[in-house]
Design a protein that fits this description.
The protein has 520 residues and is an alpha+beta fold. It folds into three domains: 184 residues, no CATH class; 131 residues, no CATH class; 162 residues, no CATH class. The chain contains 19 helices and eleven strands. The strands form two sheets. Strands 4, 5, 6, 7, 8, 9, 10 and 11 form an eight-stranded antiparallel β-sheet that branches. It is flat and about 85 Å long. The termini are far apart. It is a multi-pass membrane protein. This is Methanolan biosynthesis EpsI domain-containing protein. It is found in: Cell membrane.
Length: 520
């Protein structure tokens, strides 16, 4: 066992032997509450654990529980000077955390479910240990947010940013290149800033490190924010430099050799180099004395603001019953809302569109949007007298939830694990979500997505989620319809022209979707 680990274990064991009766009872109640929460919300914790282990973007989270234990161990010599006591106003914090979980459960938004599950663990601490102990644990409690696997939503933005940095450096180094979205064409070949090369996993890990280091190594708030800013900017810039290095090397040694070397370097080796660079740059500015306590128990004990909000509860049983009641209410609310399903027709068909006729669907590269959990899916092709072709995809859902999310990850216009790659945002189409895709390096496609729920017509997944949440909170049943209009873009710009002409022929899109799917 390493000396540091042995010292931490010895400290915990010795501390447990000298705990006061108040601390013994408080920790026993907190442990029992945490065990119940972990069991009741086991599916959410299991889903998070799978993401930590299976998805490289979140592998660093495996270390977060150990870091949290270390942060508590740092603070323990001062914490044990405080007296834990139940704090019933903390039930409002717990209720807020439970409500976040409910919102995630009724909308199918895993991020909200998981954030709520983590927040409930954190919120149980002030309820059962009191406001003063929680003040001493404020940073570890907030740092628990890094247990939530979040960040995949930044992939497309980071792909674009990395591509822009890369093309700028490529031109600066004298290499002729043309950029189209996240694809860069050079004399050595066509390069894609793929999702795996977006740098999102390093940005998330560096952010977690920066927040930790800012608390542990700095006292000045300006230096803390400076450290966090460096951990946000440096990995993005470094990732752009790495991508440029691959392109530059490919001009000399060929694409295969350069890509092979990049696959070796691009991993935790790259992260370690960037991390070392940031630490060395920040080392000179560390301003926390080595032997200074992380917190001051006496200052917490005499803090006027804590005295004003401290309201102790004489009955631990009452606050435990309050926690149990909130957990039961959250589960019951989510269960009831999840059973809501709207009536949908037994069959739907693609309608006649004035000026357009149905033709065989024969794409150059197969394209079929993903709509898991939908009761109906239709895909067909229309053509007008000018020879313009538009592909129409329709999906109808009786409800939204786990396994049936119209705008969920892997759903929609971009086929997962296919020849298609996201290229860039497309031209604007009213409220629709416009995207450009590329397959096999030379086949381009434009796809525009709209969601329909009640009176909502939008391409925004966030707006759809809000509409679904409002429906479930009010126990209101409404079906969801997804329509994707798409066309192959050859010559470039023809797809946007064809889709606009088709949209004009359908009339107002919302009522057209309603008539086609018979949901209103």
């Amino acid at each position: 066992m390493p000396p540091e680990t042995r010292a931490m274990a010895d400290t915990f064991f010795s501390a447990s032997r000298r705990l006061s009766p108040a601390w013994q009872g408080a920790l026993l109640r907190l442990t029992a509450a945490w065990v119940v929460l972990l069991v009741v919300f086991a599916s959410d914790w299991a889903a998070m654990a799978r993401q930590w282990w299976d998805i490289s973007t979140y592998n660093h989270i495996v270390l977060i529980p150990v870091i949290l234990m270390w942060l508590v161990w740092q603070r323990w010599p001062e914490l044990e000077k405080l007296e834990p006591q139940a704090w019933w106003p903390g039930l409002f914090l717990f209720a807020g955390a439970a409500f976040i979980w409910v919102l995630g459960a009724i909308s199918g938004l895993d991020l909200a479910r998981q954030a709520g599950a983590v927040a409930m663990l954190a919120a149980a601490v002030p309820v059962l240990l009191g406001v003063r102990v929680s003040a001493g644990l404020i940073f570890p409690l907030c740092y628990m947010a890094f247990l939530v696997p979040v960040g995949e939503e930044l992939v497309k933005v980071l792909q674009t940013v990395t591509a822009e940095i890369t093309i700028a450096l490529t031109h600066l180094s004298g290499i002729p290149a043309v950029i189209d979205g996240v694809f860069i064409d050079t004399p050595a070949g066509l390069f894609e800033v793929a999702e795996a090369c977006s740098g999102v996993k390093f940005l998330i890990a560096m952010t977690a490190f920066g927040v930790l280091a800012s608390n542990v190594c700095f006292v000045s708030w300006k230096r803390r924010f400076g450290m966090i800013a460096a951990c946000l900017v440096v990995p993005i810039v470094a990732n752009g430099i790495r991508a440029w290095g691959t392109i530059y090397a490919a001009q000399i040694v060929g694409v295969e050799v350069a890509a092979g070397f990049d696959h070796i370097v691009y991993g935790w080796v790259f992260f370690a180099v960037v991390l070392a660079f940031v630490i060395l740059g920040a080392w000179h500015f560390f301003d926390r004395p080595l032997n200074e306590p992380v917190l001051d128990a006496e200052a917490i004990r005499t803090a006027a603001v804590l005295e004003r909000i401290e309201v102790s509860s004489k009955s631990h049983r009452n606050v435990l019953l309050g926690l149990a009641a909130l957990v039961i209410a959250a589960q019951a609310w989510a269960f009831s809302a999840d059973r809501l399903t709207a009536p949908v027709p037994e069959q739907i068909d693609l309608p006649q569109v004035p000026g357009w006729k149905r033709v065989d669907y024969t794409p150059t590269v197969w394209w079929e949007p993903h709509a898991e959990g939908a009761e109906h899916r239709l895909l067909g092709r229309y053509e007008d007298a000018a020879g313009r072709q538009v592909d129409v995809f329709v999906a109808v859902y009786s409800s939204q939830g786990e396994g049936r999310e119209a705008g969920g990850f892997g759903q929609g216009a971009l086929m997962p694990e296919s020849a298609w790659s996201w290229q860039s945002p497309g031209p604007a189409f009213d409220s629709g979500k416009s995207e450009r895709f590329l397959a096999n390096g030379n086949v381009e496609r434009l796809a525009v997505t709209w969601y329909r729920n009640g009176d909502l017509l939008s391409g925004s997944n966030a707006r759809l989620k809000l509409a679904v949440i409002a429906n479930h909170l009010l126990f209101r049943v409404r079906p969801t319809v997804t329509v994707i209009l798409s066309a192959e873009d050859s010559p470039k710009g023809q797809a946007a022209e064809a889709i606009r002409a088709f949209r004009k022929s359908t009339g107002p899109l919302g009522p057209w979707m309603d008539r086609m799917t018979h949901v209103r």
